Amino acid sequence: MISSHKHPYSQKEVISTKDLQKETLLWREKGSAARTLVEQFLNDKQFHFKNRMEVSDTETIKHMVIAGVGIAFVPKLAVRQELSLLLLRTVNDSKFLIPIHFTVISAKDQHTYPTVLAFSSFLRKWPLN
């Protein structure tokens, strides 16, 4: 979960459910994989937000969070630059981390192709943090 650098959540260690009820959640449009993942996570944890705003792309969500419109769940890799420039902060409370699991499937007869091997090697070395 990300907030603007100036948002009070950026300094809090623990955020309560009551805190969330005052916030606007910025999230992707219905039907997107990111939205589905966030919806499932929020339902499982029974987190509720006062307002929700649908936004069609992650770049716009980032700019809206920087402007203080709301908070959002986005992949950490998508905000790497904004985090380093101190425009955004990740919320420190670990209960807001959404685990993501990837599965790679390849055709049985193509697993030894150089491009497939290179891609597999890249994925194994790719930092997800």
UniProtKB/TrEMBL annotation:
Protein's UniProt keywords contain Transcription: yes
Domain of life: Bacteria
Annotated ranges, domain LysR substrate-binding: 2-125
Biological process, per Gene Ontology: regulation of DNA-templated transcription
GO molecular function: transcription cis-regulatory region binding
Record family assignment: Belongs to the LysR transcriptional regulatory family.
Protein name per UniProt: HTH-type transcriptional activator CmpR
